[in-house]
Every structure is written in C-alpha cells, then in structure tokens.
Amino acid sequence: MRETTIKTLRRLGFTEYEARAYISLVGFGMATAREIHETSGVPQGRIYSVLRSLSDKNYIEIQNGNPSYFYADNPGAILNKLKTEMNNSINESIEYLSNLHLNSKPPSPIWAISSEWGIKNRIKTLIQGADREIIILVYDPSLLGWILPELKKIKRRVNIEIYAKNKDDFAGTNLRVTEYPEKMYSMMEKVTSMEKNVYGVHEAKMNLLIDESTGFFIGKTQGTVTGVIAQSPQLVYTIRAFMKMLGDE
C-alpha cells in the first residue's frame, strides 16, 4: 500500500523523495528530520531540502528549534485540494483538445496499425460506426472473439454478411454465415497476395468492408498482427463487388 500511495502522490506532483518523506511524517504526526530520514529512505544529505520543499508548497509546517520539528496538518484536505486542481486541469485540457483545429495536409487514405490493442479498438470503432452494411471475410476463426461482441450489438440495425471457410465456427452466434465457394477462396488468395505486396501483410487473418467506403485488412507480418485501413471507396467497392458476385454463384 505504501508504494501505491507513493505512486499516487507522484501523480499529484510530489517527487519521489517528497512522497516518501511526506508519508513518514504523516505517520509520525510530528517528527524531526532525522526520524523522517530513518523511516522514509530519503538520504540524509537530501532530507532538509526535501522538507523545505514540502513546506514551501504548504504541505507541512516547521517548528523551528534545536532540533526543529516538522508536522503534517490535515493531509486529507491537502490531497483533496490537489485532486480538485488536477481534475480541473484535466477538464480544461479535454476542452482545449476538443476544440483544437489545426490546418494540415489531407490524411492518407491508407495507413497501418501495428498494436493488437489498436487493432481491436479500430475494429470496435468501425463496427459501431457502420450505418448500412458490414461484410467480413474470415480466414482465421481464432479472431472471432475480436468481432462477435460488437456484431451482436448492431446486428438488428446493420446488414451483416460473413464469409468463412467453416460455418460451424459461428455456431450459436445467430449470425448469417456463408461458406465461401472455391472461386471466392481463389480470388481472395489473389487479394491476399496484393495485400502482401502493397501493405506488407504476409498472412491474412480477416478482412472487413464497412459501408462500401472503408476496408480493414488484418494479417500477420513477421509474427506481429498488423491492421491496414483503406479509406478508399473505389477499392472497397471493387473488392465488395467481386465477393458478392462469387458468393452468389
């Protein structure tokens, strides 16, 4: 608990030594610099400067004498004040960032995400933001856990089409799944080859097409999961048209 409190105090602006000295002093109520040094782990050569810094910040009081005594008065009130100041600063920062608009070059329609957390978060955002249609081609059923919770939330308002090698992988999900025919599999292998050459994705795992405007191609590159976003309606429309054509045959 002591280390957790030290981390909390550091988030509130204390230095490591200030946090350790303050905790020891609160435990004593009133103590000399030597007592605080011996229990806090703050080096003897630093303890006076650390205590003076705490005093300058009005966190502790000093009773001068020989020896001098230090005491911490009402630490709860001090920490609540610091918490309020931090919350106010965070709220001001949120407001500033929300209203920040800088002129920049138009973003690239294609970019990559190389962290698993980032890919999962982007999948969630894309699925939640879909208006009309989501088409998903699943190569690797082990990734189903990344999409099923979000698909279940929006399946009543968005048309969802899933193409997979084995429908049994989706048993119990109440989602419409089509086992892709051999022609589609052959065509998508060519798409995978294109992804490898253009995006650097070496092993396709799953493709998502959102509202005929955005494609998200997930694969593995040198053992690392990579997601490539393509906000290119023309490209997405072409891939979608091929998938629909072959899926209907």
UniProtKB/TrEMBL annotation:
Pfam families: TrmB (PF01978). InterPro entries: TrmB-like (IPR051797), Tscrpt_reg_TrmB_N (IPR002831), WH-like_DNA-bd_sf (IPR036388), WH_DNA-bd_sf (IPR036390). Residues 9-72 form the Transcription regulator TrmB N-terminal domain. This is TrmB family transcriptional regulator. It comes from Methanofollis fontis.
